[in-house]
Amino acid sequence: MGNKVKSMGLVGLGVVAGVALTVQVSAWAQKGEGSPLPLDELRQLADVYGLIKSDYVVPVEDKKLLSEAIGGMVASLDPHSVYLDQKAYREMRESVAGKFVGVGIEVAAEDGYVKIVSPIEDSPAYRAGIKAGDLITRIDNVPVKGLSLDDAVKKMRGKPGSKVTLTIARRGEDRPWVVPVMREEIRVLSVKAKMVEPGYAWVRISQFQEATLEELATKTAALYADNPDIKGLVLDLRNDPGGLLPGAVGVSTAFLPKEELIVSTKGQLPDSNQSYYGRREFYAPRGADPLAKLPAAVKTVPMVVLVNGGSASASEIVAGALQDYKRAIVMGSQTFGKGSVQTLRPLSADTAIKLTTARYYTPKGRPIQASGIKPDMLVDETLEGDGLNALRVREVDLQRHLTSEGDKAGDKAGAAAKEARDSAEQRQRALALLKNRQPLELGGKDDFQLAQALNHFKGLPVKLAKPEAVEAKAEAEAPPKELPGAETKPPELKGSKK
């Protein structure tokens, strides 16, 4: 049984939205033993190395050349494989603990620039007014064009209290604007919980960290202690970039019956083919069981899971598991589509490569990679439209993204969705809606998607996104199906209270 848990996950924040990592320290030589080395290509690499050392205009250190060669080779594979030098390796370990020094943004690359996937709540970037969809064109007046994403991230890191100046381009604005941002130690709050109305609870996970399960159990238990007759619980995973794999397994287990399959992985190596179940060995192999303090009612309370284009990686694992078992209705916008496993392969005591080694699959075998999780009920961010989600970068938008194995239909659907998002009409409509709009406070009184979740619990009509409203009308005119996908009345949930 112990062998099954040797590849529990970590998450690195910074390069792209939420990356689930699997720590497996094994010799790379176990793969491809006996495969002949490409001697001609290796000689060519050595020749290039020698030419740079002998003929380049200025001397170049051996360490720099070799590090850049390793970094370029790994980065050419996909957006999530990366070489971690000493500084990046240290920062990754810090982020796993839920803290790092920076400006507080999740980023991805787009057209040579750094695109904001999501500002972290209450971070310096968030307070400075930086929004999802913004492009960083300069860092301390140094053009970002030509820098690798990893190098751009390094430039935004630094000592607490130091200042970094970002030049921001925003669609719909005539000219870029310059904003100085003070670096801080970013401590990402993992779990928030409150009663939004009598009888209805809201639990938000902003990132899956080491303390997430303990926080979830403590805050949910406190809600039930004060409100024992909770009639509906909203699990809010919007803008959650992901995090620790054990956290995703544990959160899913909190709301599902014991022993259920939560997620599986498939890759080339035998160790990459794993199944993770709702058992303590998979989410808390050491110490006390953090889920032991949860009240039994959380297993049966009616649930809605809120997601959007910023929900990635670990949050997609949770949404997919609860959706597969019909334990919750997933509501909102299609998720990011980060469904690949990055394995940490140490190269030395303080360097490593983060290498994509497998894909994630939901309990029913649905691929998450590039496809994401499609909500049971598509609900826009606001009554007027889907706001920032219409402009969000997703996995399928990233260059060299890994496709869904054997899911050509899903890949085509993702490409079609990208084309629709990129259309001039769609962008103009989204920009018009965003102009003069204040940032949305998730869980606040003006949270439209949360209001629709509450309507769902109460059996009231849910205002669906326009494309799904058309489908709902077509379904209403068709013979009834066993599993309605776009009804405005609450579908039957496993464990729902009557």
TrEMBL record:
Belongs to the peptidase S41A family. Signal peptide: none annotated. Residues 89-157 form the PDZ domain. Residues 401-411, 469-480, 489-498 have a biased composition (Basic and acidic residues). Residues 401-424, 469-498 are annotated as: Disordered. PANTHER family: CARBOXY-TERMINAL PROCESSING PROTEASE CTPA (PTHR32060:SF30), TAIL-SPECIFIC PROTEASE (PTHR32060). Pfam families: CtpB_N-like, PDZ_6, Peptidase_S41. This is S41 family peptidase. Keywords: Hydrolase, Protease, Serine protease. InterPro entries: ClpP/crotonase-like_dom_sf, CtpA/B_N, PDZ, PDZ_6, PDZ_sf, Peptidase_S41A, Tail-specific_protease. Transmembrane segments: none annotated.
